[in-house]
Specification:
CATH architecture of the largest domain: 3-Layer(aba) Sandwich
Structural class: alpha/beta
Largest sheet: 8 strands, mixed
Radius of gyration: 24 Å
Bound molecules: NADP nicotinamide-adenine-dinucleotide phosphate
Helix content: 40-55%
Number of strands: 8
Length: 288
């Protein structure tokens, strides 16, 4: 097993170090700009040495994960004297391996290893990491090693080219961050009929879980339900009117999402092209 080191003892660094060490990967060294953070992580992993510099980590480990915030990755990598036979990997979802160019010039193998997961806290990251998908970039033999690590974490992987990375990350923003935004919009609408945010969230959660369950079990496009999937023009017209009257700032968002939903309904086959055209006209109409 390769000796592994981490530079950056935050959420992702801690979750990876803890979970990989539980699978008998030797996590031998850790550094952070705050020694306290490094010490905290080291307490969770057996035989992990707290280092004062990133260079010490690179000297002790064969595979170094740079798990700092994105903006610090290039600076950390360029501050280390790498050598052939070493590997360095970052975990950013948006940056390609090109930001590790300084390490590649010194003949280290470079890669990226992005957990496609949302980590709001360290404990929740340790819980959520296993079973995640990982986006990988690397050349062989590092690529195979990174694939092995995803297996140890019970995850699967997708291999990306450097040019794909930004689009891949934008897709993650739709699936994760904007889902949060949509729930917040729904919770806010419940305020209009007097239900407090906590109660609204609690009531909406089974619907959300049911939707995710349907995406998982039934799949796209058949998991789509609701007025657009049925072609219920009258219902949609009522929604547009009530939003226009009470929450006009949401009208364009509702319309735009509706327009994006029509092709899913068509693919499901519950509406025909004629109904899709009528839906499109209704959702494109400017309301006075
Ligand atoms: N969080 C997520 O949901 C998530 C998901 C997938 C991928 N990622 C990626 O994982 C990487 C790490 O993100 P994170 O959420 O774990 O960040 P984080 O919780 O903020 O942790 C980053 C750690 O790096 C330390 N640090 C900052 N600058 C440093 C430097 N120059 N040298 C050494 N240590 C430094 C920070 O110290 P301080 O505490 O003193 O600032 C902190 O302990 C990023 O590339 C991110 O894009 C994050």
């Amino acid at each position: 097993m390769l000796k592994i080191g981490f530079v950056g003892a935050g959420t992702v660094g801690t979750a990876l170090a803890v979970r990989l060490s539980q699978k008998d990967c030797p996590v031998v060294a850790i550094s952070d700009r705050s020694i306290t953070s490094a010490q905290k992580l080291a307490k969770l992993v057996t035989n992990c040495h707290v280092c004062h510099t990133a260079q010490e980590v690179a000297d002790a480990a064969e595979l170094v994960f740079i798990t700092t915030p994105d903006d610090a990755i290039a600076g950390v990598a360029s501050g280390i004297q790498w050598h052939a036979g070493q590997s360095v990997v970052h975990c950013s979802g948006v940056h390609s391996i090109d930001i590790l160019e300084s390490a590649r010039r010194l003949e280290a193998a470079v890669g990226s290893f992005h957990p496609l997961q949302t980590f709001a806290s360290v404990n929740q990251a340790i819980d959520n990491l296993p079973g995640s998908a990982f986006a990988l970039e690397a050349e062989e033999p590092l690529l195979s090693r990174l694939k092995e690590l995803t297996s140890l974490l019970n995850g699967n992987w997708v291999e990306l080219k450097p040019r794909d990375k930004v689009l891949y990350h934008a897709a993650a923003v739709f699936a994760c961050n904007y889902l949060v935004t949509l729930v917040k919009l729904a919770v806010d609408l419940w305020q209009d009929f007097g239900v407090p945010p906590e109660e609204a969230t609690k009531s909406l959660l089974p619907l959300l879980k049911g939707t995710i369950n349907n995406i998982d079990k039934v799949g796209l496009p058949d998991c789509l339900t609701g007025p657009i999937s049925r072609g219920d023009l009258g219902t949609i017209d009522k929604h547009l009117n009530v939003l226009k009257a009470n929450n006009s700032s949401l009208l364009n968002t509702y319309k735009e999402l509706g327009l994006q939903t029509i092709p899913i309904a068509l693919a499901k086959g519950k509406i025909d092209k004629g109904k899709a055209k009528e839906l499109k006209a209704l959702l494109s109409l400017r309301r006075k």
